[in-house]
Write a structure and sequence with these properties.
- By secondary structure, the protein is α+β, with helices and mostly antiparallel strands.
- Helix content is 29%, strand content 33%.
- It has two domains: 2-40; 54-202, Mog1/PsbP, alpha/beta/alpha sandwich (Protein Transport Mog1p, Chain A).
- It has helices at residues 2-31, 37-40, 119-129, 186-199, and strands at 54-59, 64-69, 73-75, 95-99, 104-112, 134-136, 141-145, 148-157, 160-169, 172-180, 201-202.
- The strands form two sheets. Strands 3, 4, 5, 6, 7, 8, 9 and 10 form an eight-stranded antiparallel β-sheet that branches.
- The chain is globular, with a radius of gyration of 35 Å.
- Mean pLDDT is 81; it is low at 1-49.
Length: 204
Amino acid sequence: MAATRIAGRFASLAVLALLAVATVAAAAGCGSSAAGPDVQATQPRTQTRAAATAQEFVSERYGFRVTLTDEWSAADALVDWDGTKLQGLSSPAFATFRDPATGRTLVAAAARVAKGMELAGWRAAMVRAAPAICSESPSVEETTLGGEPALAWRATCTDGDAIKIAALHGMRGYIAFLDLQLPNDDAEDRRIFESVRRSFRFTR
């Protein structure tokens, strides 16, 4: 009988030991589950692009400033524009602003005009100044540029479209256009053009 009781006690102790081992193993298994830190570190993270900051660009030659994002680059005109021809985007007579990510280019220039020049006449001169590869829309939008009355219209060219705007300030006629050499989104093109127009200021 004593031997039987001793054997029973050993059996009970063995069962308790096995249960303890099973409990520890289960706890260790929970620590390495899918919710553990090792697996969480490999889960994809949502990446957000840093918001572009506004930057002011100034043309000393033509006396204006405009605000764009810091993704754009700027180069002021190197020589005076004579007001007769709208040359290529690389013309040294244009103040040029580029966004390499989208292919958009903004150019602007100014030239002295005759006394008594009216806005409609200046816009007509800019239509005549356009290269032969461009077709200028006869439809114009009355707007403003730097607080001055302005006319805006669209041009379709074989190498890309453009949104143009003409204004008079002092004794000079101004022309600026957003060139769209890549197939961009019309709504985004218009948003950028309007942002440029609203931020444009004459500095003299």
